Amino acid sequence: MIRTMLRMRARAGCDSAVESAWRTAAARIGRLAGNLGRDMLRDAGDPRSFVVVTEWADESARHGYENGPIAASFADAVRTLCEAPAGQTYRVMRDLDGKGARICVDVAVTVPMSRRAEFERGYAEVGARMATVPGHVREELLREPATDTYHIIAEWESEAAFYSWVADPAHAEQAEPIAPFLREFQRRVFHLGADRRPDGTTDVLVVGAGPTGLTTAIELARRGIACQVVEKLAEPPVNADKAIGVHCRTMEIWEDQGIARDAMDAGIWLTGQAVFVNGAQTHHMSWELPDLPYGHLGLPQYETERILADRLATLGLSPRRGVELISFSQDDDGVRATLATSDGGTETVRAKYLVGCDGAHSKVRDGLGLTFSGGLGQFPQLFMLGDVDVDWDMPDGHLLRFIHETDGRMDNMLVCVPLRGEARYRIATLAPPRFFAQTGGTEAPPGFSEELAEPTLEDIQAALDQLAPPGTRASNLRWSSVFRIRHGIVNRYRDRRVFVAGDAAHLHPPAGGQGMNTGIQDAYNLAWKLALAVRGIAAPELLDSYETERRPQGEEIVGRAVRMAFTDELDRDDLKRQFLQEMSMLVSYSASTLVGESVSILDGPRPGERAPDVGGLRRRGVGHALRLHDLTRGTRHTLLLYADGSTDATTVIAAEKLYAEVRELAADEVDVYLLISPDADLPPTLTPPTLRDAGGEFRATYGVTGAALYLIRPDGHVGFRSRPIDADGLRNNLRLVFGGAR
User: Fold this and answer.
1) Residues in domain ABM (predicted)?
2) Fewest C-beta in 10 Å: which of 102, 341, 635, 673?
């Protein structure tokens, strides 16, 4: 069984006309084959908002209605009666199938008319309490018109999270304000995932199922955006043939996506780095810095892709493997792509947007005619990689670089990265001369070579004999390959409705795992903007900000990675800052037109910078301290209003008005919290939710006094800040993002 839910908001005075149009349509829908139910619900908090619910026996019945005359007639009837869509307007749900995807729980409860006000007050308290429950995403209260039936519609990250909450005795306390009404209720549970449409259309087509493409799809699916992911490789990789290092900033992204623990369980912490030049140690640095939220994780890329693919599956979506992009074209309304399918045929997909995450040999990049700024550089050397066990006396968990110089110029190098397992390392060094001869005097193609023979254990040992400490022995060669490095960055990241990300946009040496981490962060920046555009609530210039924010990062990283490949770049005074830069913790979009401030705050993160986590936040009814990232985690913007003991009552009261206005201006895509200092009085209102900065960590880290605000974007960067609270400045900033919202 398939359920659909379509939200619409009537214009003032048009409520009755919308209901009348629905009654006419519902009578016709009930006569359609495969229709199991139809209803119109009303938002309990906004009487002008309606949710049309239909239920169908199968996909064929649903699409027959949606593409037929009854749906078209109803859409025409309400088009002038309703406001332009704001927020997520359409959701598709299916019966549970055990795959663990995001779920929607519908709890129907009967409330006598005389007790409605009591029930709705109690529900508001329950909603505030549920905001901190692990795995709970959001919920809304709807009511069947002219009846005593309410529906609590709640989204959860997974079945496991929901049933874990049900089994926890504490859930009774969280639901206590409406417990008298729950003695009898009906509960239905559905999968809520990205909609894969059989008519060959989707919202976003993602080409490539590497870390960049999977991240793009996860972020879109988390927001309910229908997408397809196609990958020409029939099977996922099983060898450690690409990136290993997972940066601290990427780990924060994975925490937001709910996979940080999976990554830590599968990886190994890289605890430091040592550099040797002609056998003598020149640098050593510990990477275990106490103020970092995460360390540097060693995780082979095939494990990264497995973890990301598993997360995507929980959202109801899997890559279509063995499917290759052949060509595409675009117009004002979307993109038409021709795909070669795994059975040897072809098919056409129509999408609103296309994202090319298809790597170094990107067909999307070629199809757009993108060029590399300054040309595409190429290292003259061939390199080899090997996965081996190494017997030596070196510190555990350290990335080791051995360099050989002649007359001050580097002529050979060896990089050894720890892998999970005792004494196991990834070795990277120059390939022996015979591999050049195998190319027949022609240039080897960039990337990993399938034409050349695989390096042997003896080849690895020869490199260790020349560069590693005497007596070092390699054994148990599991995998090896030869590769050539090209480097460059494309002249633009966007062409109308088509984007490139990851290696499709920038190529550079694999020093420090920069390519994979940068690609993941490209996707994390793009996807939330793309979701708003698909839903029709993005400002016209929002998608342009992807290139203006991410391309400068790509330029900086390409240049740095090229320098690191053949130079000892660690010869700097501030090694800590260099490491933070490598870990992407210093990425800033300060030059972006999307970010701004009013009345500069001297300390704290600046507009465009990453919003750091803090602890020690206390919320009434919660027995443990919360982190700031507990509030900012998820798919929406977060507005943090701050007040200390010097803030007058009028300012605090105004926060409630601003709370409601901001949510309407941003199509309900902003979560708002009031943070108060230990010396401030707790306001009586529950809107916005209030937390106490009990330890003063937020005040110290964010440099706030009196009254102030910070707007945090879904990608964890500061969008706007002000001290004192500048409501007009905030409104203007939100319009830069939500220009299409009402």
Assistant:
1) 2-93, 103-190
2) 341
